[in-house]
Design a protein that fits this description.
It is found in: Mitochondrion. With about 270 residues, the protein is an alpha/beta fold. About 35% of the residues lie in helices and about 15% in strands. α4 links the parallel β1 and β2.
């Protein structure tokens, strides 16, 4: 059989105009035209940690889930934490404060980040397309005073700056577990979820948080932690939230719910 002519000849024989249009669209040739999708810049996502350990810092499983799903989504990740002392240190084997012991939030967060972490003061919207806050009591103790002051809480100055800057820039913000209280406090009228509004026999032990969110002026949206209804997307404010460990449930449900939050955050970046 006769060999097929080269692709360039086939294009030319089918229409010089088409060939010219393709060359203009891809000055480097057809190879560059087909490889352009591979050169698209990945979404750059900042992850803000609050220590290391559920009762006095970042919930480690939540942080890991966030990082795994960001990796799977092809994101470029940078981690940050405020360079401040923790509110207190909890002995996680006893669930009680460790007297006369103090730790630094940035230093502790570096454990999760495998050392690759920077002070939150260096986080800028210009360098990132989105920001995500995992949960853990550190969000209510080190990033804010919510654990002590409830609706009258104050938010760490750098955390407040980051939330306002990303919101003003129209860049998505993801939060899970207890961390949606940060958005509720800082972003007026934001819609968030921490799950259900009743404890339901202990399944939702922190359901009272929903009431505090309403008192802060935010709208609380009841959501499940499971994959079917795992995240709430406030499209107006580009805030995405999921309950995570606000619910007593199997770990894989937590993981999947965080995955839905991450997926929606990446979708909102448009990358």
């Amino acid at each position: 059989p006769r060999p097929l002519p080269p692709p360039s000849a086939m294009l030319t024989s089918r229409g010089p105009a088409l060939c010219t249009a393709l060359r203009r669209a891809a000055p480097g040739g057809l190879a560059s035209f087909h490889s352009s999708s591979r050169r698209c810049r990945a979404a750059r996502v900042a992850v803000v940690l609050s220590g290391c350990g559920v009762y006095d810092g970042t919930e480690i499983h939540e942080a890991s889930a966030v990082l795994v799903h960001l990796s799977r989504g092809g994101a470029e990740v940078h981690m940050y934490a405020p360079d401040v002392p923790q509110m207190h240190v909890i002995d996680h084997s006893k669930g009680q404060p460790a007297e006369a012991e103090s730790r630094n939030v940035l230093v502790e967060s570096a454990r999760i980040a495998r050392g690759k972490i920077a002070s939150l003061a260096k986080l800028t919207t210009a360098d990132h397309d989105a920001v995500i806050f995992p949960g853990g009591f550190g969000a209510a103790k080190n990033l804010s005073t919510f654990a002590v002051d409830g609706k009258d809480c104050k938010v760490n100055r750098e955390v407040e700056r980051v939330l306002k800057d990303f919101h003003k820039a129209g860049k998505p913000i993801g939060l899970c577990c207890i961390s949606p209280v940060l958005a509720a406090k800082v972003l007026s009228g934001a819609e968030v979820t921490v799950g259900h509004e009743e404890e339901e026999g202990g399944k939702w032990p922190y359901a009272g948080t929903a009431g505090a969110i309403k008192e802060l002026g935010a709208k609380h949206c009841v959501k499940e932690v499971t994959i079917s209804f795992p995240a709430h997307v406030d499209t107006k404010n580009k805030v995405v939230t999921t309950p995570a460990f606000m619910c007593e449930t199997a770990l894989h449900h937590i993981f999947d719910g965080i995955g839905a939050m991450v997926k929606n955050v990446l979708k909102l970046t448009g990358k």
